[in-house]
Design brief:
The complex is a heterodimer of chains A (448) and B (486). Chain A is α/β, with parallel strands linked by helices and 448 residues long. Chain A has 12 helices and 13 strands. With 486 residues, chain B is an alpha/beta fold. In chain B, 36% of the residues lie in helices and 10% in strands. Classes of the chains: A alpha/beta (448), B alpha/beta (486). Chains A and B meet through helix 1, helix 2, helix 3, helix 4 and helix 5 of A and helix 2, helix 3, helix 4, helix 5 and helix 6 of B.
């Protein structure tokens, strides 16, 4: 089946109007020697055959219930209210494109305007764009903004930054004469942040809660970074912002985060949502789409894409970025999520995550040979912590899965750096006390 | 319209969902880290639902009607792809799960890599880029790394035709190159003379959109590619217009060294109001080892009846372009789309997209002048200024809304004054195209007899023409009503 409506009489009528005898004639400009190749593709599937094929492939994945998985590391399974997918399935929204024609796109434009507003409230920043691809590419764009702004040559990354974010920043910066310090991912490096900054530093990037789930002490940091002439970029977790102080309160210049936790499924890593917020003074250097409020000739309120002179379709090689298609529908999901939970709901989700993660950590800490956050035991944490075990994390995870049907925390041996016996355990509001107790007793039995 | 904003609807104390009570002991919070208020609005669930239902009623998508937005390929998005992407086994699969627990996802990705290799004629494909422009940046960073390894880092120029999408020059700058613009000749092709003059040992690559944004296939494509290769440069293909070529020509066989696909254009994934998209990159032998990763590879397991897969980084990889594997949910939708179509179906798509465009061009040309008037591919560019009128493409677009259509792309490509770039994808039937022709002809007549109708448009929507100038001059980028909530 295809979705082409043309009948043979209609094709004939159209060809006659064009003045040609056969569709093939329309392709005469194409080199004939390589035209019409034989494509080795699978045979065509009918719709029911496709449905069966997809179901079979989906069933090849082992996807445990949310409370039987403790994986996080930047992607989290939080509860998604039914309102979110209800709105995402409104075809007027998801089958539209970038709202270049505002009068036909008021729904999406107002939703993006509200998204920008809620992101600014949540992060404590002044302006936000209408999305990047994911948290890591938001951060890479923030680093490019800083390098272009102050014409300096170094980006300083806090040691406990998510290593995947670091990877993406490294890739993006390859085209620029920029140096990343420290030159390798050193999560156990306890250097003071201001020591990472010198006269060549364009920006300092700090993640809080960091990759291990721990809060960094950011009080007074922005002043020191600014005194050195650099920007402070803060990477954060959106659920934490329901309860904890946002980057804006610490004087951050740019706040970035991955918005997947706000109503998006983990979906094997994408699509997620790159959130980017900054101060008004950097607005014209910000990448991406921005929606503004305006009015029609009779004074009725409406919304348009604005400040497009920053963007590639107007400014071409002098644009702030190349970004065009972004993650608008993901931003819509985040908006519906935030609107549904609201002030109270976001506060409560953050409290539940915090309480349950601490319950899990306290229980696990009582097991022989288990240590919580061994590399920095004194820092407070949010919904994730590093659990060091008396056996290799790889072994413990394999037994958890094979014998208990539990997917354990992210095995940090994959990252090297002496974390072979450590896993990153993530706990959300979806983990009941009973599910946490099951994990604890399973780890006890495995490590006994 | 004037739908109140979320903040205007907010009543402190309301909440749109219920969450479980805490079943573990409360722990003290680190007080110094706790904020006073999170600044979010408070609404009941019904308020939230009505708000978004009303917003959707003020939006126009492909499922609302004809959406001939040029270079965007606004074709029908099959519903079964939506159902498939929502299967728990896909939606709830975590990217950091052990590989043996996500063989279904890896199988989808492996098969998709293979199918795109076939369709594009490439040696290898990476699915990581999240959009077309992201794919462009990827390809240019690969080219950069290639010349670094080859000992020719002094190649700093990217040749970009003046018809190119704005993303091409912007991506070039982001990848650290300098842009050299190439003019278009009187047939709508890249000027071969200008190209020859520009080719030198400073050139890293030509970025080529083919068919170009005039909807025209480069008639000297083989000479163009040879010319660039002869000076030691590479050719990047912008695959935005691939819908005209699926099953007809493989860009890799033409000599394109690296190219991105737009899954949300050519392969039926929805555009989402501006993403998420997916921009996989295919490469020939020269560049395949530079692709971003991880990519999915075969990993035979004698104990499994099914094929088994693993992930790996190509050996000279530029690294990661995204935190994980790319936009898997979008990739899955296009995977489903290709399985529904197979080779013959994809070729049929190209045939009918090109048939539709040539039919519309033939029927509109008498009212709307077509520069570079020759057989077009999947789209064409005409001038939104009927003869003997002072109409503007902008006004014609606004007036089309009153006739129930989404306007074409306006004022692009930049080399055509009052450009209207019209792309009628293959899923649109003859009666739709004819209604569009009638509307365009009626508007041309209005332009001659009652031009006010154009400049006043749209007149039948809940909102009139919006003041974009003052929006940019005095930006209001967050809802003033939100200031009460913090």
């Amino acid at each position: 089946m295809t979705f082409i409506p043309h009948t043979q009489p209609e094709r004939n009528e159209m060809l006659a109007a064009i003045g040609c005898a056969h569709i093939e004639e329309l392709f005469a400009d194409l080199p004939s020697s390589i035209r019409n190749p034989r494509l080795e593709l699978p045979d065509r599937l009918s719709e029911p055959e496709l449905a069966r094929t997809l179901k079979k492939l989906a069933d090849r994945n082992h996807v445990p219930a949310p409370e039987k998985s403790f994986l996080g590391g930047g992607c989290y399974r939080h509860y998604i209210p039914a309102t979110v997918d209800f709105v995402l399935q409104r075809a007027e929204l998801y089958t539209s494109y970038t709202p270049y024609q505002p009068e036909l796109s008021q729904g999406m434009l107002q939703a993006m305007f509200e998204y920008q507003t809620m992101i600014c409230q949540l992060t404590g920043m002044e302006v936000a764009n209408a999305s990047h691809y994911d948290g890591a590419t938001s951060l890479a764009e923030a680093c490019l903004l800083a390098l272009n702004l102050n014409k300096r040559t170094k980006i300083a990354l806090a040691p406990a930054l998510n290593p995947r974010y670091r990877d993406v920043v490294e890739t993006y910066l390859a085209g620029h004469n920029a140096k990343i310090v420290p030159d390798k991912w050193q999560p156990d490096n306890q250097a003071d942040f201001p020591d990472l900054v010198d006269d060549d530093t364009a920006a300092l990037v700090v993640q809080t809660p960091d990759f291990f789930g721990q809060f960094e002490d950011l009080d007074g940091l922005a002043e020191k970074v600014h005194a050195a002439g650099a920007l402070l970029i803060v990477v954060t977790d959106p659920i934490s912002l329901g309860l904890f102080r946002p980057p804006g309160e610490y004087g951050a210049d740019i706040a970035v985060l991955d918005g997947q936790s706000l109503g998006l499924p983990v979906s094997f890593g994408g699509p997620h949502l790159g959130v980017f917020a900054t101060r008004t003074s950097l607005l014209r250097r910000m990448a991406g789409r921005v929606v503004g409020q305006t009015a029609d000739a009779t004074g009725r309120r409406g919304y348009v894409l604005t400040l497009a002179t920053r963007e590639q379709h107007i400014r071409r090689e002098r644009a702030t970025s190349n970004i065009c298609t972004n993650a608008a529908l993901s931003a819509l999901a985040a908006s519906v999520y935030l609107a549904t939970l609201g002030a109270q709901g976001m506060n409560k989700v953050a409290r539940l995550c915090h309480a349950k993660a601490h319950y899990a950590a306290d229980q696990l800490a009582q097991l022989d040979g288990c240590v919580i956050n061994r590399h920095s035991p004194d820092k407070p944490f949010f919904k994730e912590f590093a659990l060091s075990l008396p056996r290799p994390a790889t072994v413990v995870n394999r037994k958890l899965l094979d014998d208990y049907g539990i997917i354990g925390g992210y095995d940090l041996s994959a990252e090297g750096k002496g974390f072979d016996d450590t896993m990153l355990v993530s706990v959300t509001e979806l983990h009941s006390r009973a599910a946490i107790n099951q994990l604890v007793s399973a780890v006890r039995e495995i490590c006994a | 319209m004037s739908e109140p904003t979320l903040y205007e609807l907010s009543v402190p104390g309301r909440c749109g969902t219920s969450l479980p009570e805490c079943d573990v002991p409360e722990v003290p919070l680190p007080d110094a880290l706790v904020r006073d208020s999170n600044g979010l609005p408070s609404l009941s669930q019904q308020q939230v639902v009505r708000h978004y239902v009303r917003l959707s009623q003020h939006n126009y998508g492909v499922d609302s009607g004809f959406y001939p937005l040029g270079s965007c390929t606004m074709k029908y998005n099959p519903k079964i792809s939506e159902t498939g992407a929502r299967l728990d086994g896909f939606a709830e699969a975590h990217p950091l799960q052990p590989e043996h627990t996500v063989q279904g996802c890896l199988s989808v990705m492996f098969q998709m890599q293979e199918m795109l290799k076939q369709i594009g004629g490439f040696a290898a494909v990476s699915l990581q880029p999240a959009a077309g422009a992201h794919g462009e940046l990827t390809g240019l960073l690969m080219i950069r790394a290639y010349f670094r390894d080859k000992g020719e880092p002094e190649r700093y120029q990217i040749l970009v035709p003046d018809t190119a999408h704005g993303t091409n020059p912007a991506s070039s700058t982001m990848a650290g190159f300098e842009v050299v613009e190439l003019p278009t000749d009187d047939k709508g092709n890249i000027s071969l003379r200008a190209l020859k003059a520009a080719c030198s040992d400073k050139v890293a690559a030509l970025m080529l959109t083919n068919p170009n944004t005039l909807g025209l296939f480069e008639q000297q494509i083989e000479d163009i590619i040879t010319c660039v290769h002869d000076c030691g440069g590479l050719v990047y293909g912008d695959g935005a217009n691939m819908n005209a070529l699926t099953g007809i020509i493989r860009p890799g066989e033409l000599g394109i060294d690296v190219m991105h696909f737009n899954l949300h254009k050519t392969f039926g994934a929805p555009h989402g109001g501006g993403g998420p998209g997916s921009g996989p990159v295919g490469a020939g032998e020269l560049l395949r080892s530079y692709l971003p990763g991880p990519v999915v590879v075969n990993a035979p397991d004698s104990e499994s009846r099914d094929e088994t897969y693993s992930t790996a980084m190509p050996h000279s990889s530029i690294g990661r372009m995204a935190a994980h594997f790319g936009n898997f949910g979008v990739i899955l939708r296009s995977f489903a789309y290709i399985l529904l179509h197979a080779a013959e179906g994809l070729k049929n798509n190209a045939h009918h997209a090109v048939l539709n465009a040539n039919y519309l061009k033939a029927r509109l040309a008498q009212d709307y002048p077509v520069p570079f008037d020759r057989t077009c591919m999947h789209e064409f560019v005409c001038q939104g200024r009927p003869e003997n009128t002072f109409a503007r493409a902008f006004d014609i677009s606004k007036r089309l809304m009153d006739f129930g259509f989404h306007p074409p792309t306006n004022y692009f490509p930049l080399i055509v004054p009052e450009a209207l770039m019209i792309e009628p994808p293959e899923t649109e039937g003859l009666e739709t195209l004819d209604r569009f022709v009638e509307a365009m002809r009626a508007i041309a007549e209005e332009a001659r007899t009652s031009p006010d109708k154009l400049t006043m448009a749209p007149m039948t929507l809940p909102i009139g023409r919006l003041d974009e100038v003052s929006a940019a001059r005095h930006p209001i980028l967050i809802d003033p009503a939100s200031s009460n909530s913090s």
